[in-house]
Amino acid sequence: MNTALSPEGETSRRPEPPHPTAVHHNPEASWPVRLYRRAVPARLRRALVERTTPQARARVKRRIASLPSVHRLLGGVRAAWLVRHHPGLLAGHDREVRLVHDVPKLVLVRPDISPLAARNANAAAVRTVLDGAGLDYFCVRGRSSTSAVVALAARDRATALRALERAGRERPGYVCAVDGVRRARPTTRPAFRHRTWRRLARADVLRMTWYYGDARGQLTLGSKYGCDIEFWAADEETGDLLLAPRPNLSAEQVPRADTPVHVPDTLFTALASADHPLSLVRTRREFSRPGPEDVRFPVDVVYTWVDGHDPEWARRRAACAGQAYHEEADNAARYLNRDELRYSLRSLDQYAPWVRTVYLVTDGQVPSWLDVGMPGLRVVSHKEIFDDPSLLPTFNSHSIESQLHHIDGLSEHFLYFNDDVFLGRPVVPQDFFLANGLTRFFPSPVLIPPGEPTESDVPVAAAGKNSRALVEATFGTVISQKMKHTPHALRRSVLYELETRFPAEHHATAGHRFRSLDDVSFVSSLHHYYAFHTARAVPAQVRYAYLDVSHPALATRLETLLARRDKQVFCLNDTVSGDQELDTQQTLLTTFLETYFPVLGPYELDRPGV
Question: Which residues in the chain show pLDDT less than 70?
Fold first, then answer.
């Protein structure tokens, strides 16, 4: 994903100084810091880290980040030239010039832009152009979910290029050649310049892109979400077949003359869901049916959430006798509401639009900003999922998690999110499930401590030890790894099976109002290992970052995450912060989250002030 640099809320035709939270004010995104990371060996950088404080390193980075970049200065000059010499391209308040990787691009501003929306808009624009030119094209099942593919006979190349050039002038777009081999993002050139098309006149695959961005100037979606146009040549022997210029998922050749079929565009991207089908598109029968790699079952998401500032909830908690055995489990940071849920839901809407229903499990609490009437969202009370009401109230996440499969209407396959877990870039169902229904889990390199649970164990370690005992007693193997703080891919039937197979442990965990040495982590540990041993789950990898918000280098780590935007999942976890640290953390986190997720989510009634 490209990062936009433009004024907040501006649609000016003239480049202006970017908003303070824009990425080029982020030292981790500056050219001197990038050069330092490439040029200095990791061993020397680690030695420097050991000998300096995070605060000192941050001061130095901010100073060197202010050094001007030749590429940025040149980009600013080119942007000013573009505005001056092509004023007609900027007609309307929905267009502006932004620097994308220091290169000026004309961007179409949309308040509700998302990766899927950008992909669909680019694909629809190309199809409209080809329809208007009267060309026979067909959609292809390509290898990317973020870029659509349409194909047409190579004999129609000249007509197609003329039509696409006109479209690129009417609404400023960009185009590039795609060779089908390189994994690097291709360099796009202005589609509103005739010389661009002369250079690309013989390309077998083109990518047409209209850049889209949010209104606040934090996010620009570029060529990754463009639409590919493939020119299929006729076979030399008979001319009756069209041959693909590069591999795809379904067919390397199709009959030159065949009756087109119309299917939902949902079939051509894993970012879309059959529960929310896209518009019908024209294709050939070879591309009109699902493949074995397609996840065709619904996937829901379950969140657990608590507002520790709620006085009624605090009174209920205080009225319960006893407390958690370990200070970490009893730390106020565990119940602190920093509005993470708002931004986690934004990340879900941006990067996993294929989710069917979101269930929010709470102790009768509802965030003030949440639109509870929004389709696809349901708030579930603890009272609805605990069969034994005498076990309530509970303030133990292990207890609550043990009951999630009791949610009425929950799909067989679902993802469990903590509200401090976020998606950082587009993901597809296949990142969490195999198409045959198996779940994926993500083991951590962090090990479960040896021995029996003790009072000195943090709750996650104690629960891991208890899961290890059950797995060893059942299957004769000894588990050693914890799980990463990611969305947990779960199957409802497996959780019911665990409740039946380990009734004493399940009931005991459900009955602990506070975290206990006897807790079992049913959803974030035992489910994965039990499903693995019964051939229903497989270990997998995910691009992931874990950030402890109490770490002294939190600001730098957030800046690095924002500059790179390369993680599929990240977690902002806090279990040990004291009251004196919370205000500083809140400012850092809110600024970071608003910058990373600037687009208002569908579940929000309002937008917070920053």
Answer: 1-25, 31, 61, 65-66, 68, 180-185, 321-336, 575-582, 607-610
Rounded to whole angstroms, the Cα distance separating 94 from 107 reads 8
C-alpha dihedral (94, 95, 98, 101), degrees to nearest 10: 90
Question: By C-alpha distance, which of 228, 119, 113 is closest to 175?
Answer: 228
How do residues 501-559 score in pLDDT, each as one tens digit?
Answer: 999 999 999 999 999 999 999 999 999 999 999 999 999 999 999 999 988 889 889 99
Residues whose CB falls within 8 Å of the CB of residue 298, separated by 6 or more in sequence, listed in order: 273, 274, 275, 356, 357, 411, 413
Give DSSP secondary structure letters for 355-394: ---EEEEESS---TTB-TTSTTEEEEEHHHH-S-GGG-S-
At 22 the pLDDT is 38
3-class SS at 544? strand
> In this structure, what are the phi and psi dihedrals at residue 3, rounded to the nearest 5 degrees?
-110, 125
Q: How far is Cα 596 from Cα 568, in angstroms, rounded to an integer? A: 13
Q: pLDDT digits over 183-241, tens only?
A: 556 789 999 999 999 999 999 999 999 999 999 899 999 999 999 999 999 998 888 99
Peptide bond into 393 cis (omega under 30): yes
pTM for the full predicted model: 0.88
CA–CA gap between residue 135 and residue 474 (Å, rounded): 63
Coil/strand/helix, residue 189: strand
